[in-house]
């Protein structure tokens, strides 16, 4: 048997080898003083590594982390607080408006209702215009796809069945890969 | 002690004490990983805190099919890479890589060299290794720390770093040999 590679000596010392390989190495070590020496050196090396002092966090570390996490958590309640403050502000404005104008509460609500209906009508017109433009765009897209399929089908009979199967398989593979990468991105949310 | 996945589940439900238990469990492994890889305790302290905050924020993205420990180390690893990137430290290529299957000839060990090794207290060698860690190329140092300071398995490191197990083994070996050569040069 040839002399043992140092990388295998480390793996042997770390118990990372199979039983069969361990036995082979043991039997070689019995007959090879150079490899025994090499093993001894690396054994000391591994033992010394365990003596490297370890870092420790200060005693209040976990508390510090938790206190930094609390503000993140309270962000939702901050939104609720902001919402409540807005409602309160609008109420005060309404009250002031009522106090200084000669308008009654009923009149104010009627006027508000009217302006609301007017705004809704405007919004509806804009939405209809948007849907119309969108439908034109979708129609164009469908026509484009139709054209592509038509050209593709006219091209397909000219190629062999194997090529057709290969193309379909390749397309499916790409689609699966895209889906898988999206899934990975969503699950891990971390770059590698 | 509760299992990691249970603690994660409870944290997502709103139990902050569960997350604090996670912090208590992993604060020292993470600070050692970052600190020994970057060679800077204060920076590691800051980064460790950021890693836990980042983990807390993205806990809902954790897939319970994987080990929480490797997920957390992966976040720490990304933090280290970001730091290297900002500092423009080369983290992809290795300075003096050994070839994957480099032909091996047994070392010719001098008897006095051997004696010198034996004379040194293990602790002293440990201290020298600690100092020599800074001389390793960053990517090798990171993998060495994972394996021999954090005592992660080669498989776990492979998952964290997204590298084949064989590559991890080879790079950790390179790190140890560089450290060994450095020590022998000093003795």
Description:
- The complex is a heterodimer of chains A (192) and B (187).
- With 192 residues, chain A is mainly α.
- Helices cover 81% and strands 0% of the residues of chain A.
- The longest helix of chain A has 51 residues, at 105-155.
- Residues 188-192 of chain A have low confidence and may be disordered.
- By secondary structure, chain B is mostly helical.
- Helices cover 70% and strands 0% of the residues of chain B.
- Chain B is built from nine helices and no strands.
- The longest helix of chain B is centred in the first third of the chain and has 23 residues, at 16-38.
- Classes of the chains: A mainly alpha (192), B mainly alpha (187).
- Chains A and B meet through helix 1, helix 3, helix 4 and helix 7 of A and helix 2, helix 3, helix 4, helix 5 and helix 6 of B.
Order of SSEs of chain A: HHHHHHH
Q: Based on Cα principal axes, name the global outline of chain A.
A: flat
- Tally the helices of chain A: 7
Main structural class of chain A: mainly alpha
Largest interface by residue count? A-B, 45 and 56 residues
List descriptors.
heterodimer; A: 192 residues; 81% helix; disordered C terminus; B: 187 residues
């Amino acid at each position: 048997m040839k002399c043992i590679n140092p990388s295998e000596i480390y793996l042997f010392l770390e118990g990372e080898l199979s039983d069969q390989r361990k036995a082979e190495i043991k039997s070689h070590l019995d007959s090879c003083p150079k490899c025994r020496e090499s093993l001894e050196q690396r054994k000391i090396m591994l033992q010394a590594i365990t003596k490297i002092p370890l870092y420790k966090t200060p005693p209040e570390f976990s508390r510090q982390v938790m206190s930094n996490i609390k503000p993140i958590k309270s962000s939702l309640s901050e939104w609720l607080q902001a919402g409540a403050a807005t409602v309160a502000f609008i109420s005060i404005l309404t009250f002031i408006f009522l106090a200084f104008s000669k308008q009654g509460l009923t009149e104010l609500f009627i006027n508000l209702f009217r302006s609301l209906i007017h705004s809704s009508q405007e919004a509806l017109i804009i939405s209809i215009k948007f849907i119309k433009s969108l439908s034109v765009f979708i129609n164009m897209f469908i026509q484009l796809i139709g054209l592509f399929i038509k050209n593709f089908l006219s091209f397909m009979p000219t190629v062999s069945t194997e090529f057709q199967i290969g193309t379909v398989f390749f397309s499916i593979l790409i689609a699966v890969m895209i889906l898988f990468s999206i899934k990975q991105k969503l699950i891990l949310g971390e770059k590698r | 002690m509760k299992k990691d996945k249970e603690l994660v589940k409870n944290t997502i439900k709103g139990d902050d004490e569960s997350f604090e238990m996670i912090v208590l469990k992993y604060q020292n492994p993470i600070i050692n990983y970052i600190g020994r890889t970057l060679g800077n305790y204060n920076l590691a302290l800051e980064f460790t805190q950021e890693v836990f905050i980042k983990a807390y924020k993205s806990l809902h993205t954790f897939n319970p099919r994987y080990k929480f420990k490797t997920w957390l180390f992966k976040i720490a690893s990304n933090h280290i890479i970001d730091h290297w990137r900002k500092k423009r430290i080369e983290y992809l290529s290795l300075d003096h890589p050994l070839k994957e299957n480099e032909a091996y000839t047994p070392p010719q060990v001098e008897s006095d060299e051997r004696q010198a090794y034996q004379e040194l207290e293990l602790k002293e060698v440990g201290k020298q290794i600690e100092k020599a860690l800074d001389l390793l190329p960053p990517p090798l140092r990171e993998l060495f720390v994972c394996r021999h300071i954090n005592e992660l398995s080669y498989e776990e490191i492979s998952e964290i770093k997204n590298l084949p197990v064989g590559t991890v083994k080879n790079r950790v070996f390179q790190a140890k040999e560089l450290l060994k050569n450095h020590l022998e040069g000093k003795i």
